[in-house]
Design goal:
With 479 residues, this protein is an all-alpha fold. The protein is 87% helix and 0% strand. Helix 2 packs parallel to helix 20 and helix 8 packs across helix 17. It is rod-shaped, with a radius of gyration of 47 Å. The N terminus is likely disordered. One of its GO terms (cellular component) is plasma membrane.
Length: 479
């Protein structure tokens, strides 16, 4: 009779929990419908305010339609396991009654098997129930493990992931086995993939240039150029360049242009030249003499320009070559000349017009880059695409390149997991800590409870077989 009372109490508890579960399921279903309605009306702001962690917590603290269906399956399996327990209890009672009535030896075997089946079923019921709640509501130690140890389980899970999944050896071994370098190379070697990467890079570049404020970039560029110019002496470099230009005759076209423009200017402004000469003459000279002198000076200047323009071997050209050669040498070796150039450089860089010119260069460069990034046939995008195809082909075929890429990726991944391992694992522990214990327990039970009920069924069957075996052996040894 004690067994009957135990079974009845346990079944009443399960029936009560089933009834409560059905009520809870109904309430959860209503809440789910309300959440879905509220989400369809205004899901944007609330989701953005909550963030990923809030989304995970909401997912664990609410029941979906799939969870409710799983919960129904758990209830059906609980009824099946409880029914099997009730069945072996009835068999035990009947077998005992039959044994007292002199039914024969078989009744003892059946009673032993049924009794052991009840013990196994009750023990496994206690073990399964203790995971999620206190059996029969009694404050038995080490029960209701999931709701009471939820946070500790989250910490243990985070430590387990950190030690076994985020260790340097595991990360390196996993990445090395994947062979990212060769796979990435084969993927990039496909023209459509290279086009896709080029388009994504162009979009990212346009976005970055759009986000940057021109004033900030201009200030940085201007400061960088000015600081670089101040830190490096320019006279020796200019001297070497000038020496090379003169040696190669590169300055002659500039001389030709200047002489030609001077000749043309003299032809158009003859009166201005003669007026300038006459204006500088002494006041005591006759005006006709000043006029004749002005005409003479003008003709000589015009003749000089014509001869220098038309005669590559004109002495003035040779004198200019020697002057430029000497000046190039002074720029490189003469201390005085170099100091004067540096002072001139400082004065030029200090002018507001020059700083504005340096700063405005960024606007032109940005416009050029954005235009090139938007044009699919621009030289920039074509070169990037060709470079990606070439890189992909090399990565797919060259083991050395593959090794370098794999090494870079392994190093980057190891740095991330070793540097931010605590932050990564804290995501697990903090997320689990934010779950509601009651809802988490119900959700876990809904997902794995059906399989756990098979433990009760198996315990009943295995217990019955074990009891029958023990009773048989005992009878055999006793006989």
């Amino acid at each position: 009779m004690r067994d009957h009372r135990t079974v009845e109490r346990m079944e009443d508890t399960e029936t009560g929990s089933e009834t409560g579960s059905r009520g809870e399921a109904a309430r959860v279903a209503g809440a789910s419908r309300s959440l879905r309605a509220a989400g369809s009306a205004g899901s944007g702001a609330g989701a953005r305010a909550g963030g990923p962690a809030a989304f995970v917590n909401r997912a664990m603290n609410t029941f979906s339609a799939a969870d409710i269906e799983k919960q129904r399956g758990v209830r059906r399996m609980k009824l099946t396991a409880a029914g099997l327990l009730l069945f072996v209890a009835v068999v035990y009672v009947l077998a005992k009654w039959a044994s007292h009535e002199g039914a024969g030896a078989w009744a003892g075997y059946v009673a032993a098997a049924a009794e052991a089946g009840m013990v196994g079923a009750l023990a496994d019921w206690f073990a399964v129930t203790a995971l999620f709640r206190r059996p029969l509501g009694l404050p038995i130690p080490h029960t209701a493990i999931i709701p009471t140890k939820k946070d500790q389980l989250g910490v243990s899970l985070g430590e387990f992931v950190g030690e076994n999944f985020l260790s340097e050896d595991v990360v390196r071994q996993r990445l090395r086995s994947v062979g990212i370098g060769s796979r990435l190379g084969a993927w990039l070697a496909e023209p459509e993939h290279a086009d896709r990467v080029t388009a994504e890079l162009s979009a990212a570049l346009r976005g970055a240039l759009t986000v940057l404020r021109d004033s900030d970039v201009q200030a940085v560029v201007g400061e960088a150029i000015t600081r670089r110019a101040d830190a490096q002496e320019i006279a020796p470099g200019i001297g070497k360049m000038l020496d090379k230009v003169v040696a190669d005759g590169g300055h002659r076209r500039a001389v030709d242009l200047i002489v030609s423009r001077a000749h043309d200017w003299l032809v158009l402004h003859s009166d201005s030249v003669m007026d300038a000469v006459q204006g500088g003459a002494p006041g005591w000279t006759p005006r006709f003499v000043d006029k004749r002198v002005g005409e003479r000076v003008y003709k000589e200047l015009l003749r000089f320009c014509v001869e220098m323009r038309d005669m590559p071997s004109h002495p003035a050209r040779g004198a200019l070559d020697r002057f430029l050669t000497d000046f190039a040498s002074d720029l490189q070796s003469d201390t005085d000349t170099r100091a004067r150039v540096e002072r001139l450089k400082g004065e030029v860089l200090g002018r507001g017009e020059v700083q504005d010119l340096i700063a405005s260069a960024w606007t032109a460069v940005r416009s050029m880059i954005v235009s090139a990034a938007e044009d699919e046939r621009s030289e920039l995008r074509l070169r990037v695409r060709a470079s990606l195809l070439s890189l992909g082909a090399r990565m797919a075929a060259d083991p050395k390149v593959q090794g370098k890429v794999d090494g870079w990726l392994e190093g980057a991944a190891v740095y991330v997991v070793t540097t931010y391992r605590r932050e990564i694992t804290s995501l697990i522990t903090d997320t689990v800590a934010g779950w509601d214990a009651e809802h988490t327990t119900k959700k876990i039970e809904a997902n794995i409870g059906r399989d756990l009920q098979f433990i009760r069924i198996n315990g009943t069957v295995v217990g019955s077989l074990a009891g029958l075996l023990i009773y048989t052996v005992s009878r055999a040894v006793g006989a």
